[in-house]
Amino acid sequence: MKKLMNSPSTYVDDSLSGLTFAYPDLVRAGKTGRTIVRRAGVRKGKVGIVTGGGSGHLPLFCGYVGPGLLDACAVGNVFEGPTLQSCLDAIDMADAGAGVLLLYGNYGGDRMNFDMASKMTRVEQVRTVLGIDDIASAGPHERHKRRGVAGITLAFKTAGAAAEGGAPLEEVTRIAQKTIERTHSIGLAWAGCRLPSADEPLVDISDGDVELGIGIHGEPGIWRRPMAPVDALVGEMVERILEDRLPESDGNKVVLMVNNLGATPVDELFIAYRRAHEVLTTNDISIVRSFVGSFATSMEMAGMSISVCFIDDEIEPLFSAPTCSPFWSIQ
Amino acid sequence: MKKLMNSPSTYVDDSLSGLTFAYPDLVRAGKTGRTIVRRAGVRKGKVGIVTGGGSGHLPLFCGYVGPGLLDACAVGNVFEGPTLQSCLDAIDMADAGAGVLLLYGNYGGDRMNFDMASKMTRVEQVRTVLGIDDIASAGPHERHKRRGVAGITLAFKTAGAAAEGGAPLEEVTRIAQKTIERTHSIGLAWAGCRLPSADEPLVDISDGDVELGIGIHGEPGIWRRPMAPVDALVGEMVERILEDRLPESDGNKVVLMVNNLGATPVDELFIAYRRAHEVLTTNDISIVRSFVGSFATSMEMAGMSISVCFIDDEIEPLFSAPTCSPFWSIQ
């Protein structure tokens, strides 16, 4: 498991330099160098949206900075939360007088520094919504304990569209919260990733096995078994999502994301998509929009995740609003 | 090296089903089932553009069917050329009365069936342009022998924009040819991929090694050596591209693509991008547009390729023309 890098100590900064070099019209580094912000700044009076998290997950997190999506991102070391200074910088850069929403995954390190930054910042109005879409990380009665995975990008999309459209902070916050609550994700992996400074994989999944419910840092999943046909694996993933849905709010129209956790061939993402589509359709669920590709990765982890967002008439059009970021462009 | 599939025999068809299920507004299967065509059909009087090739390379080839890009794609088995019938079907579906351009990679199997199809088809005007951008596959005096790799997608973009804009067949053909001639690619890999029906990797690159110039089916490259820092590796790749450029036509403005051959972490693509940007800029070359991501893969091959297209005032605006396909959306 070799790495394309100069050294572990330059991994993150070299990658961020590449990102800003590649998309100079869209993004630039913020004050700390570990912040990515919109090149054009934030339109006066628009609610700012900030995310942040560890490196090693691109396009999460800083790949979603741009019109119709996010305004600033605080970037940590690989699989580590961003520093307090990066969080403060990101909040500051996203502020255009209408308040700032912090929208990031439910991880201890991220929470600690973002919470402190939200108290210390000079920005008066700051709200927080946490990504908690990973259904494998806690049961239905402990949803607040769940981790955030690829499904958070769907909340970037809806909240970003609402903010771009001029919605006030409370409204953008509500849209983000609603999207998160209606989004259910689960992962599957058959080989772990390696930290730049390590010699061995972070998680060792033996030759013939696959693990259901693994997290994007290799957090333990629900079970580990011999590799099985995709129809069985994806069938179980979608069934678990359907069991997790909220009958009082989730309807029967969804946005479906099949996300590459890293090293999965694109052809195989579509093989997985086919089965997810089949199971949802058999359950009388209508898929109104699909996203297939790399949205939230774990470096070279071989695996994929499925996210289902049960939409309603309010959030459906937000998925069609135009966006332009390094990794997500919708016309 | 596990595969997310039901069986080797259903690998391609399951993947194509997934693609058409995921993007029903954009694409559908053609007559043979091994053809992907635009959902909306081809506008009457527009030049049709057809590509094709083996599976296992998504987004190549069928991921680029859509407005501003291609009209039809003939799909073969994994790493095998499409059948004659698929080629005939694709040409037929792409025809809207203004002729059809065949734009595909320079591989024996693809050429055989496309050449035969271009003679057998009822479509009167058919032209062919071959992707020959892989500088590692033959020397500068044998450019016609080179293989086509990720750089062909840049010709999809320019020829697709020209055709969408109403250019006649000779013009679309000339634009494709010009883009191909000005595009130079080279690959690098540190782990091979596995065919769905095989137990072992197609190419075995030992633990500590990296191979420069490897092809997208694992064709042998220029050298195999111990893994080195990215700045040295990417530095050599870009230097080789600069040595290969045509002084009489290539200028100093380029489109730069850093392409994931499969299993490379996205963070590392940007680490590679940073160095490519540095070497080009040091050589007084201006990068006017960048593409970083998965454009032409080799299933789970761990590696990346660099493509540089030396643009001129004619083809530069074609890169900015809007497109919408399953894998490439430009606003």
Automatic annotation (TrEMBL), chains A, B:
The keyword Transferase applies. The lineage of its organism: Bacteria, Pseudomonadati, Pseudomonadota, Alphaproteobacteria, Hyphomicrobiales. This is Dihydroxyacetone kinase DhaK subunit. Signal peptide: none annotated. GO terms for molecular function: glycerone kinase activity. The gene is dhaK_3. One of its GO terms (biological process) is glycerol catabolic process. Keywords: Kinase, Transferase. Its EC number is 2.7.-.-. One of its GO terms (cellular component) is cytosol. SUPFAM superfamilies: DAK1/DegV-like. Residues 7-328 form the DhaK domain.
